[in-house]
Amino acid sequence: MKLNVAALSIAGAILWGASVFLVTLANLAVPDYGVAFLNVVAALYPGYHVGAGFGALLIGTAYAVVDGAIGGALLGWLYNLVAVSTRDSAESESAGRRVQHRFGQHAH
After folding, report:
1. Does the N terminus or the C terminus of the chain have fewer Cβ atoms within 10 A?
2. CA 55 to chain CA centroid, nearest Å
3. Assigned domain for 103 exists
């Protein structure tokens, strides 16, 4: 089974963007909320600063949407790459067993 890379990319963008948006929004309402998480976000995203107001909310969310989309696309692509090579390996092994069986070379 292959994953739809575009769908996984969109899902990653929505999930990660919403996470950063909601934690930043909660931090604006309650300044002690999510500080450790937001400090990590601030270390990764240039221009994002914890508690910097509505601008930080938009900057952090924009970075997170792009980051989530790229991460989702990479995850889907990597999964499909591994799934195809694993399936191809299993199919060639199965074909080898069919040939052995057809010519009477049963493995005991």
Report:
1. C
2. 26
3. no
